[in-house]
Each structure stands twice: as C-alpha cells, then as structure tokens.
Write a structure and sequence with these properties.
6 helices; 252 residues; alpha/beta; 11 strands
C-alpha cells in the first residue's frame, strides 16, 4: 500500500503574528514555523500503518512551499521531522502556497500517476482554517473523500472509518484509493526518537518544480482584529439592569 501524507508549514501557535507594511503578507521575521497540528494526526496514523506492515506500506510525506532563509522557517526541516517518525521519503513542491486552489493542483499533479492508495491531510491548516485543499485534491483526482476522520482501519482493500458529523459520529466503509482529512483522535501525536532523527537525514528527499496554475484568490490586505472595546459589567443577580441595557441598545 502506498500512502501520501500532505503537510502544511504554519506559524507556531504561540507566535505573535504581524504583517508586512503593505499588509499583503505575513511578516516572517523571527517566526518559528511548525508542522500543522492537524497534519500530525495523519502522520502518526501513517506511521502506525507502516509499523504494522513495514514491507507492505510505503509512506511519502509532501509539502508545498519555498524553503525559508531562516532555520526557523525551513519547510525542509519540517519534512525531515516527519520522516523521523519512520516514514520513507519526502517531497517538496518548490512553490509559494498562494491559495487552496493552487496548492490542490500542485498536489494532484504530483499524485495523479503515482498509484497512491491513501492520501492523508489534516482537516485544516491553523493559519487560514480553510479546510478546502483535501476536498479539492479528491475532486481533481476523481477519488472519494472522507472528511474529519477520527479512525481508519484498512482490510482487504477497504477502509473502515469513523468520522465526526453534526450531533454524533458516522461509521462507513470505502474502497481504496481514498482521500481523507484527519481530525483529533485519528492517532496519538508522536515525538521522533533519536534513531528516527538520525535515519531521517539519509532518507530520499526530492524537490520538484510546480505545475503552471493561476491562483483563484488575490490578497488585498491582511489586518489584525480590532482591539476590544469598552464594556460594562453587570452583576448576574441584577437581571433588570441587564434587560434595560439590552433594551437601550435596541437588542430586545
């Protein structure tokens, strides 16, 4: 079985986000970038499947991005971290991920003739939270797509899955090949051990040129949210004052 794990290169969740003077891009100065946390669930599950069948499962990890000039902004370093989990090879598509449409086309163009049985994503990236790329890739490759998966087992060419839906969970089966986006619960996050880190340095690593695709989105400007305004604190026991305040604002 061949598995493709697609990861995003995103700012650390603790980073203080600022934008360039024209507002068109993130100011990457001093920002540490990490593997998108939702992608970590997909990587961990791929590593588990690899461990169960070392000779029968091959896992490729892929990212779309330009390698940053700073060590804290290195797509290659994050791909190596993924390889350290026991995965087989890494691919970086050498292009700035402009929008979801562009990224999906790059991934689909790479994957279309590689015979992958399972293509894994996190449910969304934590920078833009679009959750668009996995579904777009599935559509471009004409493959079934299961979103927000919390478990997957493979047996006799069938994927048996659980996914989150409004108000509960859904269990379903789907023939391979399949595109899946991972939710928390698909697997436990893993921390690479020293042996894995050393082995990752010698594993195959390929940088491929992008295909020509025109982005569908043009960024006009990024802006931080406005600062919080003033507020009035009302004692929870004073319901009448709350009602009067809402009435004064025309909210009731």
């Amino acid at each position: 079985m061949k598995i493709l794990c697609c990861i995003s290169h995103v700012p650390d969740t603790t980073a203080r986000i600022q934008f360039t003077a024209d507002g068109k891009a993130l100011d990457r100065t001093g920002i540490t970038f990490i593997i998108n946390p939702y992608d970590d669930f997909a990587l961990a599950r791929a590593a588990e499947l690899k461990e169960k069948n070392p000779n029968g499962v091959k896992v490729t990890v892929l990212a779309v991005g330009k390698n940053g000039a700073q060590s804290t902004d290195s797509v290659d370093a994050n791909l190596r971290k993924a390889l350290a989990l026991g995965l087989d090879e890494a691919v970086r598509i050498d292009a700035e991920p402009v929008d979801a449409f562009f990224v999906a086309h790059q991934i689909a163009a790479y994957a279309k003739d590689k015979g992958f049985d399972l293509i894994l994503f996190g449910k969304e990236s934590i920078d833009y939270n679009g959750a668009q790329v996995p579904g777009m890739v599935a559509a471009l490759l004409n493959l079934p797509f299961v979103s927000y998966a919390t478990s997957i087992e493979i047996q006799d060419g069938q994927a048996h899955l659980t996914r989150e839906i409004t108000g509960g969970k859904e269990r379903l089966s789907c023939a391979l090949p399949l595109v899946l986006s991972a939710q928390k619960g698909l697997a436990e996050w893993r921390i690479p051990n020293v042996r894995g880190i050393m082995q990752a340095k010698t594993k195959p690593f390929q940088v491929v040129p992008p295909v020509s695709v025109a982005p569908r989105v043009r960024t006009l400007r990024h802006e931080p949210p406005p600062p919080k305004g003033t507020f009035k604190k009302i004692d929870p026991e004073n319901i009448q004052e709350l009602v009067q305040e809402l009435a004064n604002k025309g909210l009731i």
